[in-house]
Amino acid sequence: QLTESGGGSVQAGGSLRLSCAASEYFGSRFCMTWFRQVPGKEREKVASLEGLSRPFYADSVTGRFVISKDNQGMTLYLQMNDLQPEDTAMYYCAAEEYLGYCPRTLGGYSVWGQGTQVTVSS
């Protein structure tokens, strides 16, 4: 139901835009979130659209990444600028119904994509 694309290999300082195509409409009543995971580490929340609240960004990506979605609510984006080697990870999008707050655990998200790999070389 969610399909990520746009990953690839770039040099430090470069940019990529990830896309997450949904098979159904995910409007403002959903939490739409980007996560990333490095082998051997926990999956971490990177950026999120949470109902009508301001977007959430992890401290490590604030000022460099921008989360957005298209007007039809069918595609979620993550514009990643000034990429650094520490951004190397598998990136996943996830969705869950917004009930006044977004899930605080990974298990709270019921819909996940298969992931797209981002590799940043120095």
Provide an overview of this structure.
- The chain is built from no helices and 11 strands.
- Strand 4 and strand 5 (44-50) form a beta hairpin.
- It has strands at residues 2-5, 8-11, 16-22, 30-37, 44-50, 56-57, 65-69, 75-80, 89-97, 111-112, 116-121.
- The strands form 2 sheets. Strands 2, 4, 5, 6, 9, 10 and 11 form a 7-stranded mixed β-sheet that branches.
- It is globular.
- The chain is mostly beta strands.
Structural shape: globular
Rg, Cα atoms, Å: 13 Å
- Strand tally is 11
- Series of secondary-structure elements, N-terminal to C-terminal: EEEEEEEEEEE
Which strand-content bin applies to the residues?
Answer: over 45%
Distinct helical segment count: 0
Uncertain spans: none
- Protein structure class: mainly beta
Q: Give the rounded overall mean pLDDT.
A: 94
Helix content: under 10%
Cα-to-Cα separation, first versus last residue: 34 Å
Q: What does the main sheet amount to? A: 7 strands, mixed
Features:
122 residues; mainly beta; 4-stranded antiparallel β-sheet; globular
Short summary:
The chain is mostly beta strands and 122 residues long. The protein has strands at 2-5, 8-11, 16-22, 30-37, 44-50, 56-57, 65-69, 75-80, 89-97, 111-112, 116-121.
